[in-house]
Amino acid sequence: MRDILQDEKGNLWLAFEGRGASCWDGHAFRNFTTEDGLVFDRVLAILQDPEGAMWFGTNGSGAGCPFPLHYRAATGQIADCESVAYPLGMRRDNPCAEVEINLEPGDRLVFYSDGIPEASDGDGLPFGFERTAEVAGQGGARGLGPRS
């Protein structure tokens, strides 16, 4: 266990390296992992901001940032640009793999912070990866870019 936090509602939050985060509401545990929207299952810290939103400090790919998304205009599909490597700065001999992507007219690469999928709504539920990819795909379909 890496961190413990009691939120403003009295729930007890536990951070685990490799198992996500768990919330004890006084009756049962609810576990949160990448399947629920965490960027990575290595949760190192938990914070609740003044508005009540829960923030999870995770550790995974390059410096904790999620993989970029690739929107393919020809198919309307969006996919992760995955790579296998330790986070930057964790190891001196960190081998970084190159990923080559062929971009066609209208394609988009979406780079984003882990704060987007980890941001939570009023019920404490994270925005999540699925919703992040869905919104990025909608933006790609509308032709949005960095200056839109």
- Number of domain modules: 1
User: Which percent bin holds the helix content?
Assistant: 10-25%
Q: What characterizes the major β-sheet?
A: 4 strands, antiparallel
Task: Note the overall shape.
Answer: elongated
Radius of gyration: 17 Å
Mean pLDDT figure: 81
In which order are the strands of the major sheet placed? 1-2-3-4
Total beta-strand segments = 9
| Spans where pLDDT lies below 50 across 5 or more residues | none
Secondary-structure-based class equals alpha+beta
Range of strand content = 25-35%
Total count of helical runs of at least 4 residues: 2
What is the structure about, briefly put?
By secondary structure, this protein is α+β, with helices and mostly antiparallel strands.
